[in-house]
Amino acid sequence: MILLHHLRVGRSLFTVWLLEELGLDYELKIYVRNEQGRAQADLREVHPLGKSPVIEDGDLLLTESGAITSYLLDHYDTDNVLAPPRAEVKERAIFTQWLHYSEGSAFAPRIMKRLLMANPDQRPALITGFANGEVDLQLGYINDFLGDKPFLLGDRLQGPDFGMSYIMEMAGRFGQLEPYPALQAYLSRMTARPAFKRACERAGETERAG
Ligand SMILES: N[C@@H](CCC(=O)N[C@@H](CS)C(=O)NCC(=O)O)C(=O)O
């Protein structure tokens, strides 16, 4: 059975959601952060980076939320419910681009901005300017790409929606979605899904459900 190491509160809830959408049996091991908001030594015993999500599936130990999504879909979504078939090479390339986009491009300016918000007395102008500009650039880009589609890649839920929902949740928490009603509606649609609600219940984080 798959074991997911889940740190509260963070992106691994979106991996719990994926497991729920796939209808898989899994075990959840829950970790809590210290006063500084960091993972504690118990998670470093699982993996040297001490970051979540981490999954174990048989002898496989896997980190990085995007890689975990890829693996779970490759291995368990054999009917291609949440991903285009491999033979659809161009569609699959766009899927892969958006699967990597959340962690590869969208997340870095978000964490910068969050750290800057936490330390109002220590805001280097150069980094503040970069983070503000990048957050606006990325949200505008996502908003334009989403358009009036219900899901990131069209009319059905697919792998990239999981990481993207985390980015949207984080942006929403800091009030950054206000200029983007379509992104707010997207996030509400994702978090209202029954599988997302089940994930929140399983993780004991029902306040995150839409
Ligand atoms: N790129 C990694 C990032 C993992 C990550 O930073 N996870 C956060 C939780 S949202 C974490 O474990 N933070 C604890 C820490 O840094 O101490 C992924 O996509 O899984």
Explained architecture:
By secondary structure, this protein is of the alpha+beta class. The chain has two domains: 2-82 and 195-208, Glutaredoxin; 89-193, Up-down Bundle (Glutathione S-transferase Yfyf (Class Pi), Chain A, domain 2), CATH 1.20.1050. Helices cover 54% and strands 10% of the residues. It is built from eight helices and four strands. It has helices at residues 12-22, 41-44, 65-76, 89-118, 125-146, 160-173, 181-191, 194-203; strands spanning 2-7, 26-31, 54-57, 60-63. It has a four-stranded mixed β-sheet with strand order 2-1-3-4, with helices on one face. Helix 3 (65-76) packs antiparallel against helix 4. The longest helix is centred in the middle third of the chain and has 30 residues, at 89-118. It is globular, with a radius of gyration of 17 Å. The mean pLDDT is 96. Glutathione is lined by residues 7, 10-11, 38-39, 50-53, 64-66, 103. Glutathione (GSH) is lined by residues 7, 10-11, 38-39, 50-53, 64-66, 103.
